[in-house]
């Protein structure tokens, strides 16, 4: 998974907010993307590590907004931003890919669909959990901005981490880092896309 996998159609403009809260969320994310870009451009990075989390049911647009966020940073900051951002999905966290690419040049780490293959937070394997805990620890130490999307809320994930966290070093860092954990409400947009496709006939690609 990398930046090249970002869907070109996933932009802030193409996102149809299902309610007013989500409209404000989209505006906030766009502003945040611009602020982070300016910080990287002017100061080379950030003074501290921060984390945001978007969670909610399948098809509500979490990945769409994450992709829009990354695309916005690249379009504002230019091509040089591509090496400052690590765009990961669930399977990459905790594997060798994370270790290899997570150098100091990386200022923003995004994790799409974290723990996607688990029915509940209680089913998360200790290997997967360890991967994310590592991601937090390193992110904190290297002052990264971390953006996570998941079907699970950050508080649910934090509870599970706390159980495996020895003296609580990760939990403590996570508290300082967490800027927001926002629930994305709305319809399963995949159903809307499917309905529109039917309107266009059986062979419209
Ligand atoms: N509000 C929206 N406006 C326009 N398109 C949307 C909206 N929400 C979702 N989509 C589109 O619907 C599809 C599914 O969205 P997306 O992949 O972001 O869902 P998700 O919340 O990440 O789901 P999952 O939990 O299964 O990963 C994508 O094609 C996306 O572009
Ligand atoms: Mg997704």
General description of the model:
The protein has 205 residues and is of the alpha/beta class. The protein has a five-stranded parallel β-sheet with strand order 2-3-4-1-5, with helices on both faces. The structure holds adenosine-5'-triphosphate and magnesium ion. Adenosine-5'-triphosphate (ATP) binds next to helix 2 and helix 7.
How much helix, percentage-wise, in residues?
Answer: 40-55%
Strand order of the largest sheet: 2-3-4-1-5
Question: Major β-sheet, in short?
Answer: 5 strands, parallel
Mean pLDDT equals 92
Strand proportion? 5-15%
Helices and strands, in order, run as HEHEHEHEHHEH
- Number of continuous helical runs: 7
State the end-to-end CA separation: 25 Å
- Number of strand elements: 5
State the gist of this model:
The protein has 205 residues and is α/β, with parallel strands linked by helices. Helix content is 45%, strand content 15%.
Task: Give a quick set of tags describing it.
alpha/beta; 5-stranded parallel β-sheet; binds adenosine-5'-triphosphate; 45% helix; 205 residues; binds magnesium ion
């Amino acid at each position: 998974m990398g930046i090249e996998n970002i869907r070109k159609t996933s932009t802030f403009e193409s996102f149809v907010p299902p309610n007013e809260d989500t409209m404000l969320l989209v505006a906030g994310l766009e502003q945040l993307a611009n602020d982070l870009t300016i910080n990287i451009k002017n100061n080379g990075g950030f003074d501290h590590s921060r984390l945001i989390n978007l969670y909610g049911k399948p098809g509500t647009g979490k990945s769409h907004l994450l992709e829009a966020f990354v695309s916005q940073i690249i379009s504002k900051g230019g091509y040089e931003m591509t090496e400052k951002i690590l765009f990961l999905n669930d399977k990459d966290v905790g594997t060798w890919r994370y270790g290899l690419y997570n150098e100091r040049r990386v200022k923003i780490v995004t994790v799409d669909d974290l723990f996607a293959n688990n029915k509940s937070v209680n089913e998360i394997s200790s290997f997967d959990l360890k991967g994310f805990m590592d991601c937090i620890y390193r992110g904190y130490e290297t002052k990264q901005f971390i953006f996570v999307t998941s079907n699970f809320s950050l508080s649910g994930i934090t509870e599970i981490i706390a159980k495996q966290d020895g003296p609580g070093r990760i939990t403590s860092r996570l508290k300082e880092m967490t800027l927001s954990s926002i629930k994305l409400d709305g319809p399963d947009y995949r159903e809307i896309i499917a309905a529109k496709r039917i309107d266009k006939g059986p062979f419209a690609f």
